[in-house]
Structure formats: C-alpha cells, structure tokens
Design brief:
Length: 114
C-alpha cells in the first residue's frame, strides 16, 4: 500500500514519515554541532580588577594667566618647550634687554662721575 493510500484511509501521516523526519533532524543537528568551535574551560582564580582606562582627550586648565615682561626685550634663549616638566626656580627663558642694559650703563656712568 502506498503512502497516499495510507493517508486517505487513516487520515493521518504514517509512522515511518515521523521516523524519517526525526532521523533527518538528528543528522542535521549532529552535523551543525560537530563543526562548532571548541572552547577550553579554565579554572577560576582570584585576581585584582583593573580600574584604569585609556581615553583620547584634551586637557584644559581651569585658570589661565597671561604673562608679560616687566621690560621690553628679545628672547635670547628658550630652555623649555610645551609639555616639559618644570619645577620652581627653573630658568624658562633668557631675555636680551638692550634698552635696560644701556640705561644701567648710563646710570653707572653718572654715579662714577658724581
């Protein structure tokens, strides 16, 4: 008796169809999981939690101050650059002050003549 006749007589799908579907599903699942990546298990251990993070940023100060020279002159030597670490008392730059030097020489000459 054919499958079509069995369905017409009994009104349901024969058992061998169910068996065939189950075998196909089992074969599909076994093929899919046989190609799955193997992940090794590790033993848990106690460690510290890293709480730092590196983020791109621009640092800007809360306060800024404009620096002006007390006397006019020229920059003779620059000892530091942007980003250099400096400490109190470090010489940042050397100025050449020709007007101030000539005034000092003139006053020194006046003192010597007096």
């Amino acid at each position: 008796m054919s499958n079509a006749e069995l369905i017409r007589l009994h009104g349901r799908v024969p058992f061998r169809w169910h068996l065939g579907l189950m075998l196909n599903a089992w074969l599909f699942v076994s093929l899919v999981y046989s190609n799955a990546a193997q992940v090794p298990a590790v033993a848990p251990r106690e460690e510290g939690l890293q709480r730092t993070s590196i983020q791109p940023a621009t640092v800007r100060p809360f306060h800024q101050a404009a620096l002006y020279a007390k006397a006019t002159g020229f920059l003779k030597q620059l000892n530091v650059d942007i980003g250099d670490k400096v400490r109190a008392g470090d010489t940042l730059a050397t100025l050449d002050l020709p007007e101030l030097e000539s005034a000092v020489q003139r006053q020194t000459a006046q003192v010597l003549l007096a």
